[in-house]
């Protein structure tokens, strides 16, 4: 297949992570699991952790530590105002972009006909 | 700091390696990154999932992916903030080692490793033999004697088994950290030790100087004379006993194994050298004591030492072609005049 899922994922992971965290705050591995549950099975742990850190540094995410009695404490990430704006922008870009690609690839022939 | 009290051992080892991979990052940044990983490892272990490496890849792969996603510099670039030439050289070398040819070459080398394990055992045996000043087989000079053939077979079996076991062991449990460094250093030392061993073997392979050649039987008359005359008292020159004789050919080359006889066919022997003397035997098995230069065997080896300093210390120059001169014969009168300068008339 000429379309590489991991390449596509690389370009869209920021938006996917923002969307998952926007639904509910989560720690790193929790975000990984929710992405996988949503159908992105091949998403890598390290990619998600790196993305979370980058978005956090960029101000799209906030973070706080939740102490745990049983296991190690967990660093939770939540979305910021700036993150919501970024996510909204990503939604627009994706809707427009995916529509163009759909059209080019003739995914819905009955619509374009 | 990351609390690792609740982390299972496999996960703790993985975290330690990962911490090393991220060693160039600021401590707070590194520890916050690791917090995510700790939670992931603990959750995965609780859920009875695969080992950390099977699930996350090696620490190096994980760290590389993490850096890429987090927008951090790769390790090599981080190691050379000022463009240090050593760091640049190292990253270039690493890139070179990652090349496809090198990789396939390393794969082949890995498959051939048992050969290297055998070679390692041989070098070890040779080094031990040389350090303990053991002898080497006369017939097969590349084989040490520890202290004899049986001992050699025993020690060879022991060392080969140990080397193979060590090889298999490091295959199954790759050494890490200081142990890995020690292994590399030990192998380098063995490689260095292989140089004198190879030199020994190459020299042993060359035409053996000490091999006793069987010469033609001396002429019948000579044998008779030798038998009847036996060993004489030795050769003397200007009243001193000679210890050796060196014969050179016209071009100035030392001639080996010259056999000297007097006018009556008596062999001119020098009874020197004792039991260490290399003696040639005639076809009839009789020792030939009149071959020169006399050469001695190195103690315990059966190998013959070079002919000694003697005449070898001086340079024997070749005789030019056509240089043979017939000395002018002086008459008795001329000799008288030169001996008694005042008695003869002065020449014009």
UniProtKB/TrEMBL annotation, chain A:
Give start and end of each Transcription regulator PadR N-terminal domain.
17-87
| Domain of life, per lineage | Bacteria
InterPro entries attached to this UniProt entry: Metal_resp_DNA-bind_regulator, Tscrpt_reg_PadR_N, WH-like_DNA-bd_sf, WH_DNA-bd_sf
What SUPFAM superfamilies does the database record attribute to this sequence?
Winged helix' DNA-binding domain
Entries under PANTHER family matching the protein = PADR-FAMILY TRANSCRIPTIONAL REGULATOR (PTHR33169), TRANSCRIPTIONAL REGULATOR RV3488 (PTHR33169:SF14)
Q: What is the protein name given in its UniProt record?
A: Transcription regulator PadR N-terminal domain-containing protein
Automatic annotation (TrEMBL), chain B:
Keyword field? Membrane, Transmembrane, Transmembrane helix
Q: Does the keyword Transmembrane helix apply?
A: yes
A UniProt-annotated Pfam family? HAAS
Transmembrane domains' residue ranges: 112-132, 152-172, 179-198
Q: What is this protein called?
A: Uncharacterized protein
């Amino acid at each position: 297949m000429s379309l590489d899922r991991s390449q596509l994922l690389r370009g869209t992971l920021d938006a996917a992570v923002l969307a998952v965290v926007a639904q509910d705050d989560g720690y790193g591995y929790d975000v990984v699991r929710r992405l996988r549950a949503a159908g992105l099975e091949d998403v890598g742990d390290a990619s998600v952790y790196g993305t979370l850190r980058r978005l956090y540094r960029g101000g799209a995410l906030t973070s706080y530590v939740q102490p745990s009695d049983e296991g190690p404490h967990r660093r939770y990430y939540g979305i910021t105002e700036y993150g919501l704006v970024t996510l909204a922008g990503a939604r627009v870009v994706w809707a427009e972009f995916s529509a163009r690609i759909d059209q080019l690839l003739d995914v819905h022939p009955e619509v374009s006909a | 700091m990351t609390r690792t009290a609740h982390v299972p051992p496999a996960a703790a080892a993985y975290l330690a390696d990962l911490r090393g991979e991220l060693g160039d990052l600021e401590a707070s940044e590194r520890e916050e990154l690791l917090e995510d990983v700790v939670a992931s490892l603990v959750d995965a272990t609780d859920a009875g999932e695969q080992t950390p490496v099977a699930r996350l890849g090696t620490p190096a792969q994980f760290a590389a992916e993490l850096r890429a996603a987090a927008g951090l510099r790769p390790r090599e670039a981080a190691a050379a903030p000022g463009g240090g030439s050593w760091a640049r050289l190292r990253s270039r070398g690493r890139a070179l080692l990652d090349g496809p040819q090198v990789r396939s070459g390393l794969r082949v080398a890995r498959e051939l490793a048992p050969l290297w394990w055998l070679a390692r055992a041989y070098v070890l045996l040779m080094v031990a033999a040389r350090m303990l000043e053991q002898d080497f087989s006369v017939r097969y000079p590349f084989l040490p004697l520890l202290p004899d053939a049986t001992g050699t077979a025993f020690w060879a079996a022991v060392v080969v088994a140990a080397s193979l076991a060590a090889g298999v062991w490091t295959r199954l449990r790759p050494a890490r950290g200081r142990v890995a460094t020690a292994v590399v250093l030990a192998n380098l030392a063995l490689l260095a030790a292989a140089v004198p061993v190879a030199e020994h073997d190459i020299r042993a392979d060359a035409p053996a100087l000490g091999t006793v050649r069987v010469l033609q039987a001396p002429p019948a008359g000579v044998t008779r004379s030798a038998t009847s005359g036996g060993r004489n008292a030795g050769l003397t020159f200007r009243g001193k006993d000679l210890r050796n004789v060196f014969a050179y050919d016209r071009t100035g080359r030392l001639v080996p194994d010259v056999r000297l006889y007097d006018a009556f066919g008596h062999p001119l022997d020098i009874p020197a050298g004792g039991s260490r003397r290399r003696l040639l035997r005639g076809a009839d098995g009789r020792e030939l004591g009149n071959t020169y230069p006399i050469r001695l065997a190195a103690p315990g080896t059966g190998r013959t030492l070079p002919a000694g300093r003697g005449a070898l210390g001086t340079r024997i120059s070749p005789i030019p072609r056509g240089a043979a001169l017939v000395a002018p014969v002086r008459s008795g009168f001329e000799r008288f005049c030169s001996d008694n300068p005042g008695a003869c008339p002065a020449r014009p």
